[in-house]
């Protein structure tokens, strides 16, 4: 049942963004992030990961473990959302797309794009500190899930480090993915 709720929340979050776009509405940064953490797909990915890596878990254990991993899922979703915004916001601004965290902060604080990007990078750094704390303090039983979730945040950094490596794969991102997953390692 939790899976269906997560998917429903994800779809609702995407609809909220569509409404913002259609009404040319720019939310506050907090309002944007509250919705954006869900629309980032982080909670859905984490839930699917949970079922993939956790074996033979009872219903009671599952509810308890999901509650204990709430901070980790929140932080991972924050990293996914903010890295996506850093990588895609310039192109989205040009085409008049839905607002990003950068645009929301620019308008809310009346600052330049450069200052807004710096603020978002600082938030990402602070969020990584929280993830590292969760990584260290979680029970050993949760470690497979924790590793998967942390790796999801790492993938977001990788995909968006040179721009939109997901929706508009440039040669750089494509070459890196191919070298990691397809091409054999060259040993001299």
TrEMBL record:
<feature type="domain" description="Terpene synthase metal-binding">
    <location>
        <begin position="4"/>
        <end position="129"/>
    </location>
</feature>
<dbReference type="InterPro" id="IPR050148">
    <property type="entry name" value="Terpene_synthase-like"/>
</dbReference>
<dbReference type="InterPro" id="IPR005630">
    <property type="entry name" value="Terpene_synthase_metal-bd"/>
</dbReference>
<dbReference type="InterPro" id="IPR008949">
    <property type="entry name" value="Isoprenoid_synthase_dom_sf"/>
</dbReference>
<dbReference type="Pfam" id="PF03936">
    <property type="entry name" value="Terpene_synth_C"/>
</dbReference>
<dbReference type="GO" id="GO:0016114">
    <property type="term" value="P:terpenoid biosynthetic process"/>
</dbReference>
<dbReference type="GO" id="GO:0000287">
    <property type="term" value="F:magnesium ion binding"/>
</dbReference>
<dbReference type="GO" id="GO:0010333">
    <property type="term" value="F:terpene synthase activity"/>
</dbReference>
<protein>
    <recommendedName>
        <fullName>Terpene synthase metal-binding domain-containing protein</fullName>
    </recommendedName>
</protein>
<keyword id="KW-0479">Metal-binding</keyword>
